Amino acid sequence: MTIHELRKKYIDFFKSKGHAEISGKSLIPDNDPTVLFTTAGMHPLVPYLLGEPHPSGKRLTDYQKCIRTGDIESVGDPSHLTFFEMLGNWSLGDYFKKEMIPMSYEFLTDPKYLGISKDKLSVTVFAGDAEVPRDDESASIWESCGIPKERIYFLPREDNWWGPAGETGPCGPDSEMFVDTGKPKCGPDCRPGCHCGKYFEVWNDVFMQYNKQKDGSYPRMAHPCVDTGMGIERTVAMLQGKKSVYETEAFSSIIAAVEKATGEKYGADADKDKSIRIISDHAKASTMILGDEKGVSPSNVGAGYVLRRLIRRAIRHGRKLGVEGKFLSTLAEVVIGMYGEPYPELLRNRAFILDELDKEEDRFLVTLEKGEKEFEKLLPNLLKNPAKVIPGRIAFRLYDTYGFPIEITEELAAENALTVDKDGFDKAYEEHQKLSKQNTDKVFKGGLADHSEIATKYHTATHLLDAALRQVLGPHVQQKGSNITAERMRFDFSHPDPMTPEQVKRVEDIVNEQIARDLPVTMSVMTLDEAKASGAIALFSEKYGEKVKVYTIGDFSKEVCGGPHVEHTAELGHFTIQKEQSSSAGVRRIRAVLE
Fold it and tell me: Domain limits of the chain?
């Protein structure tokens, strides 16, 4: 079964069970300061899991592109990925365990779908503790489906509990499904969740049935929800009997292109295989980020910094394998060809993807030249060191200040009969990582975009700002992302030039005029075609026929949006633009406050 077949079978299965297929969302989340990227399939649906009505109903299914960079240094082994796809289905206060578990069992075992032998399936359920009782209900339902008691494992909170977004909120037990790979047990305590490779986790059903309170109590939710997640790449690798996701068609075409660019053969050398995997993963992830409807450009901050890091790490490993010139745009073409059908935004943004990759490769070659010149300046003093060792702090300064890869420092050192204090470099790097980790990627723990009163005001203000920018700058303006905290709002938009002071003042005045008019904010649910016909503004990445929420602010603004919003603009206060600056190539950024 291929990745495209699995994606289709999953969506078709749940549509046959009364679920509406909805669109996966952008890799760049709106109004959620907890993350730089969408990191899980349920991430965009958190507001609806918490009770906000979804325009498509209570039964939903989709596939979602995700980026995780917390383990970026682990990418290169046979399992870690930066970009991956998640399949999911949701019940928003509709069905619960007695419906979800049999559906999971059917999809896993029915020959029309995954056709996994029930004799290979094991499941885990929550063992219970002092706060919440054991999940005997899930265990009983699994047993009625045909899973024997000896393959139903009760595991503790750290294994089978989905916590709230913060200290309080919806949470509950989960039930994970595992396939026995046929490997022998590693010991008497071997069970699903063990890292020896005998058990492969294929799916997870989360049952949000409790609402944790400040006093530590767990009252039951009146309308419990179901949230599930299945990773496409990992599941296909298991179904195909492959040892690694890199052995499936999710990567075979990309790896073939890397082989052609480098002249190396995948599978011939362990160290070179690692570099080939890094190049393949990072080329795919970079293409997906650049090709997103809210695609960012490489930069030194936020999501753009992560993108730059991925691109340059791929270039570095390309150099390591002997590539001298530019090669990433060739790999991007392969990725676009593979994923253009499920993610048509890649086809629409093809020129932007290829241009940005070419420009970043040119920039990095300049960086390498600067680093080499700095190394030459340092070399006379380094050669005077009787130990013939380059201190780790100097190697790290070359890396941190000039973006000079440690591997190239080691190559130049060897050419001059020197070595590098790699332990010292690693220590300096770890200290730097601790300080900068918050600026690269934060862990998403089922988090929630802020729906506080002030965040709601700022979110509504982005609609006014967007419309005002279109009035002043022109209809080409398109939102490229936003970030809201309790202190301010940040709004990115497409525009080729810096705004003049007069333009900034005019936009600010227009927004405040609409606030003073005390315009009503209303919401309507309609199909995508109806939204387009009504003149609503949106990226329109949703699927044909899908229902969307359209928020109208008086006679001034109409946008497709998920919320939250105030009821009248006078609630917003006074709008002040603090700064207008460049965010990335062709994208400007406004920072503003409400007072």
Answer: 3-244, 453-594
